[in-house]
Amino acid sequence: MDNPPYTFPARSNQLFPHHNYEHLKEEHEIGVVPPGATVSSTVISMHPYQPPPRDHIIWSIFSTLYVNFCCLGFMALVFSFKARDRKVVGDHSGASSYGSTAKCLNIMALVLSLLLLILIIILVATGVIAVTQAMHPGD
């Protein structure tokens, strides 16, 4: 185990060493066309920005987990996945079609589940009232 001791390089007193870099000339006359010269131009056609179609996947997941009335939430989730696949491929019209179908299915699942919840509340409330009246007929 005869390891020679490591010697550190000598340290200079300068914080930043001086290097001989070449200074570049600044050109201020960029774009000056001499008289009589022909100028060519490039035309770039740009389409207006269209936001990517929405796939409503988060809403579909919540519809599937919480408000899955007649499997409408699951169907909305399937259409959301299809919309996301179409969006990844680049088919924006197919993605918007599947996304709007998922949105409609989510709305239907939400409305039908709310109606079912309201119906259950009404039935429980009227059932409780009917039971209390049947137990105390003299009041």
Q: How many β-strand stretches?
A: 0
* Helical content class: 40-55%
Helical stretch tally? 3
Query: For the terminal residues, how far apart are their CA atoms?
Result: 105 Å
Which parts are unreliable, with pLDDT below 50 for 5 consecutive residues or more? none
Q: What structural class do helix, strand and pairing data support?
A: mainly alpha
Rg over CA atoms, rounded to whole Å, is 37 Å
> What string, H for helix and E for strand, traces the elements in order?
HHH
Q: Return the average pLDDT rounded to an integer.
A: 82
Largest sheet, strands/sense/barrel: none
Instruction: Report the β-strand fraction as a percent range.
Output: under 5%
Please state the overall shape, judged from the principal axes of the Cα atoms.
Answer: elongated
GO biological process, one term: negative regulation of viral genome replication
Pfam family, one: CD225
InterPro entries: CD225/Dispanin_fam, IFITM_antiviral_protein
Subcellular location: Membrane
